[in-house]
């Protein structure tokens, strides 16, 4: 059933619009258009998809361990060498590479605290070259973490000679979709593998805070940037049934400064699904460069997503003609030989998908 707006404008079905001539809205012809809407939290994540591991590739594994253990406060859960792993990412050889898993003790963020450090092959270049790349270049950008105090956190990382984009910046958003205000102070350092981090302290006393015994709370979410969010949204909905639940806008120079965006940058940002742990940032820029993730290059390389029904997820991908990059998965803190597969997202991201434990 189609209807006419009060202004008399007509709309057309997307499938009917095949040329510029057909895009014209003709008097007396009502056509339906297709758009996007935001999902309610209860309907936004049917497979209970959740980000549980960040994979960073480092040319100096010992330096990466020291950073996450001694500066961030994480605990080493395992430090091994990969054997003949079932997860062969295209032509990337993983056998014989050092593989380290760290988690955040008593953080209150359940199991979305794991950082995986994978040894880089000799001579590996960066996924995102710096300073050439930035938020206007689509792809997997940052892993986001928390701290009880922005100044205390910044001092701890600065004392460890950690590279950073800027000192902490304050910013504020009124999020009517969440029914709360976002009042934060953040800064963006880099881990030893070249991975960009985003560390935030909540300012408002009435916000739900993440508590931990140390300065830092670990890492709980990741951000993906795009010049057009629609293909990214569509990938997650087709592969996982995950739908967008919120969106805000940002036109604040202090935010641009802290993430390394050009002055005057405007972007939209919001969350995917309920408790997934992924944000999408749509950067309003004329052009950008996609830097596809790779396990043969250094930096933030892959996200591990847990689902409650791996075979259903596989079937959804097949139905949507989303090809699997490879079968198998790397060891995690729950399973040394997990069932899983690898996907590549709409802007070059790598996703390791594993079955939730019973």
Can you describe this structure in just a few lines?
This protein has 358 residues and is of the alpha+beta class. The protein has helices at residues 61-71, 150-159, 229-240, 253-259, 310-319, and strands at residues 50-58, 75-81, 98-103, 114-119, 139-147, 169-175, 180-187, 196-202, 216-226, 248-250, 267-271, 278-283, 299-307, 326-327, 340-344, 350-355.
CATH class of the largest domain: Alpha Beta
The average pLDDT is: 87
Largest sheet: 8 strands, mixed
- Derived from helix and strand composition plus strand pairing, the structural class reads alpha+beta
Query: How many angstroms does the end-to-end distance come to?
Result: 44 Å
List keywords for this structure.
2 domains, alpha+beta, eight-stranded mixed beta sheet, disordered N terminus, 358 residues, 2,3-Dihydroxybiphenyl 1,2-Dioxygenase, domain 1
Structure description:
The protein is α+β, with helices and mostly antiparallel strands and 358 residues long. The chain has five helices and 16 strands. It folds into two domains: 1-35, no CATH class; 43-355, 2,3-Dihydroxybiphenyl 1,2-Dioxygenase, domain 1 (Roll), CATH 3.10.180.10. It has helices at 61-71, 150-159, 229-240, 253-259, 310-319; strands at residues 50-58, 75-81, 98-103, 114-119, 139-147, 169-175, 180-187, 196-202, 216-226, 248-250, 267-271, 278-283, 299-307, 326-327, 340-344, 350-355. The strands form two sheets. The chain has an eight-stranded mixed sheet with strand order 2-3-4-1-13-16-15-14, covered by helices on one side. The chain has an eight-stranded mixed sheet with strand order 6-7-8-5-9-12-11-10, sandwiched between helices. The N and C termini lie far apart (44 Å).
């Amino acid at each position: 059933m189609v209807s006419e707006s009060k202004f008399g404008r007509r709309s057309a079905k997307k499938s009917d619009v095949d040329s510029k001539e057909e895009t014209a809205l003709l008097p007396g012809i009502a056509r339906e258009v297709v758009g996007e809407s935001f999902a309610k939290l209860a309907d936004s994540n049917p497979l209970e998809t959740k980000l549980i591991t960040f994979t960073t590739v480092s040319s100096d594994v010992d330096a990466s361990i020291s950073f996450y253990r001694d500066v961030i406060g994480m605990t080493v859960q395992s430090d091994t060498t990969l054997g003949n792993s079932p997860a062969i990412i295209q032509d990337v050889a993983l056998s014989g590479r050092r593989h380290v898993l760290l988690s955040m003790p008593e953080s209150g963020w359940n199991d979305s605290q794991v950082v995986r450090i994978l040894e880089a092959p000799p001579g590996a270049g960066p996924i995102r070259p710096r300073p050439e790349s930035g938020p206007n270049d689509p792809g997997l950008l940052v892993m986001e973490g928390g701290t009880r105090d922005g100044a205390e956190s910044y001092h701890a990382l600065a004392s460890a000679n950690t590279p950073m984009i800027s000192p902490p910046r304050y910013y504020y958003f009124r999020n009517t979709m969440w029914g709360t205000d976002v009042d934060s102070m953040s800064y963006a350092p880099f881990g030893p593998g070249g991975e960009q981090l985003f560390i935030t302290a909540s300012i408002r006393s009435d916000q739900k805070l993440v508590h931990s015994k140390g300065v830092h709370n670990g890492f709980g979410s990741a951000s993906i940037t795009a010049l057009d969010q629609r293909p990214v949204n569509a990938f997650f909905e087709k592969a996982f049934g995950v739908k967008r639940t919120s969106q805000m806008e940002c036109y604040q120079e202090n935010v641009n400064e802290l993430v390394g965006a050009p002055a005057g940058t405007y972007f939209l940002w919001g969350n995917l699904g309920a408790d997934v742990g992924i944000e999408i940032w749509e950067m309003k820029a004329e052009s950008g460069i996609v830097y596809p993730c790779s396990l043969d290059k250094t930096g933030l390389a892959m996200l591990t997503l847990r689902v409650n029904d791996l075979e259903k997820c596989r079937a959804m991908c097949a139905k949507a003609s989303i090809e699997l990059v490879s079968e198998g998965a790397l060891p995690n803190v729950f399973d040394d030989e997990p069932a899983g597969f690898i996907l590549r997202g709409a802007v070059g991201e790598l996703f390791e998908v594993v079955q939730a434990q019973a």
